[in-house]
Amino acid sequence: MSALGLRTRLAPLAVATALVGGLVATTTATAPEAHAAGGSYYLYFKKNTSNPINSKLYLMKSVANAKDKVVAKYRAGSGNGSQNECALSRGWLPGTNTKNGKYKIEFHRTNFDGIINGYVIKLSDKKCSKGTKRTELFVHSEMKPNGRQGTIESERWDGTRDYYSNGCIKLKPADIKNLFAKAKRYGWPKTLYVVK
């Protein structure tokens, strides 16, 4: 086969590879873009390195061959202000990219009764960058097990300082209720991604 014939056959393959490569780059980009299969929903937590309690939690819809869509966006905090993801009960949620920041959503409840109460989304355990295992990770707020505001501090939202947590992701009560309503309407996410 001549060099010209070989180039003629390989050129379409190179173009197709470039197109597929471009598509892959688009569907694996960060912030908040594709992280899930077409048509599904996921949560996306964007850490704010200058102020961890002013981070963002997104409910996202993946869209095949296009940029994913933001369905809802909420202010969220994680940790007590520490950016040490290995600090138990203090540091923010481990993960800085889509590989080490991927969590399985284990369950969601509106009447949880435990260390935290009410509306909760339970996340899988995660090892931080130094290997420390972080457990009891949730997306939650401050409320009573029935979802109402209580009289004790841990069951009552008082304002900005309540975005601090023991390493979970924390939303104000109205926002977590809105997230639950949207997830029920559109489809519950099975995954949460954490990036900074």
Number of domains: 2
**Which CATH architecture of the largest domain would you pick?**
Beta Barrel
Number of helices: 2
- Could you describe the largest sheet, including whether it forms a barrel? 8 strands, mixed, barrel
Instruction: Report the radius of gyration as a whole number of Å.
Output: 20 Å
CATH superfamily of the largest domain: L,D-transpeptidase catalytic domain-like
Structure, described:
This protein is of the alpha+beta class. It folds into two domains: 1-30; 32-195, L,D-transpeptidase catalytic domain-like, CATH 2.40.440.10. It has helices at 3-27, 173-186; strands spanning 41-46, 55-61, 69-78, 102-113, 117-123, 126-127, 133-134, 137-140, 169-170, 191-195. Strands 1-2-3-9-8-5-4-10 form an eight-stranded mixed beta barrel. β1 (41-46) and β2 (55-61) form a beta hairpin. The N and C termini lie far apart (52 Å).
Summary tags:
196 residues; alpha+beta; L,D-transpeptidase catalytic domain-like; 2 domains; eight-stranded mixed barrel; two-stranded antiparallel ribbon; 2 helices; globular; disordered N terminus
List the helices and strands and how they pair.
Layout: H1 3-27, E1 41-46, E2 55-61, E3 69-78, E4 102-113, E5 117-123, E6 126-127, E7 133-134, E8 137-140, E9 169-170, H2 173-186, E10 191-195
Parallel strand pairs: 1-10, 8-9
Antiparallel strand pairs: 1-2, 2-3, 3-9, 4-5, 4-10, 5-8, 6-7
In short:
The chain is α+β, with helices and mostly antiparallel strands.
